[in-house]
tRNA (guanine-N(1)-)-methyltransferase (Marinilabilia rubra), 225 residues
Amino acid sequence: MRIDILTLFPAMFQGPFSESIIKRAVEKGAVEIVLHDIRDFTQDKHNRVDDYPFGGGAGMVMQIDPIARVINKLKEEREYDHVIYMTPDGHRFDQKEANRLSLSGNIIILCGHYKGVDQRVRDHYITHEISVGDFVLSGGELGAAVVVDAVVRVLPGVIGDETSALTDSFQDNLLAPPVYTRPSDYNGWKVPDVLLSGNDKLIEEWREEQALERTRRLRPDLLDD
């Protein structure tokens, strides 16, 4: 998989992409992540990427020309399955969407900033608009990093134990059950006996019951899907 990220602030991705699972995925060749500074595709000496909105109003808007230039350049080089725009008014990102995107070959992620991008970008280039929640961030970079992490971790071979990702919360519309590790007794707080029983069938039944109970208590909306 190849992920091209269009951003005004490429340095924001250095931390998230240089550690842990994403770093290992890149080293294994499971994913190639390429950052593109939109300012490099401007044509004026000041590398201007924003302007006032037509009709007035507060804030600035990202201009269409530099964004169109970088997208057109990338599309001339390869086919893309999706061109994603990170925006608070997009479709709410979830695990199902992460799973679907993980089946892609190549995707582009555009990080918005200021009051957003010229609507013509959304009308003519974007195939998916994604939000990571009902709140507004300073830009799309943090949201893009979240999307990339969620997608990359379910790629085959990225996590050593692939069943680990498949048993995470939301994979089956349930929250994950409680988990415990050594010691089995800490300050009198004991691990449930069933987990120490060695009976795989009982343990699996307990986990299913706990997952269902936790979901009913914390996220009953998931059971309505």
Remarks:
- The two ends are 30 Å apart (CA to CA).
- The chain has a mean pLDDT of 94.
- The beta strands are 2-7, 32-37, 50-51, 61-62, 82-92, 106-111, 128-131, 185-186, 189-190.
- Residues 2-154 form a domain with the Alpha/beta knot fold (CATH 3.40.1280.10).
